[in-house]
Amino acid sequence: MNPFTPDEQQRIVESIRQAEKATSGEIRVHVEAHCSSADPVQRAIEVFAQLGMHQTKDQNGVLFYLAYTDRKFAVVGDKGIDAKVPSDFWESTKNLLRSHFLGGAYAEGLSRGIERAGQQLKQYFPYASDDTNELADDISFD
Fold it and tell me: Which residues form a coiled coil (predicted)?
């Protein structure tokens, strides 16, 4: 099931495209009703692997994971981006998402989080003329 309206879904995909325009990094969003793990970070790591996100050239993929019925979420990044961002980046991004999610504004929260991740990716992994979009920009659902 999809918790987003078509407009909300388009907004999230557009946020991904805008964020990726200025970077070689890759951002994905994965949404499912229930988190099959007690720890949403562990589930996000599984999804990261299932989506092949570890295959990016610079190991700079970022996954936004949301289990909307269980009200769980996580943000995980590959080794390349994790080594570069400030130590509080992931936690502060989760806090930004949480502030929107508490009011039920999932699409808004994801869009803001994606913009924030895009800014970091742009700083550490700027777009190069030979970049290719290595991963799909659409939202994956389970």
Answer: none
- The span from the CA of 48 to the CA of 63, in Å, is 7
Strand pairing category for 61-67 and 72-77: antiparallel
Under CATH, which architecture does the 6-127+134-141 domain have? Roll (3.10)
Q: Which of 121, 68, 71 is nearest to 93 (CA)?
A: 121
**Angle (nearest 5°) at CA 35 between 30 and 41:** 70
pLDDT tens across 53-74, in order?
999 989 999 999 999 999 999 9
Give tens-digit pLDDT for 73-104. 999 999 999 999 999 999 999 999 999 999 99
Do residues 65 and 40 lie in contact, with contact meaning Cβ atoms separated by under 8 Å?
yes
Sheet of strand 72-77: strand arrangement: 72-77, 61-67, 26-32, 139-141
Model's pTM, two decimal places? 0.95
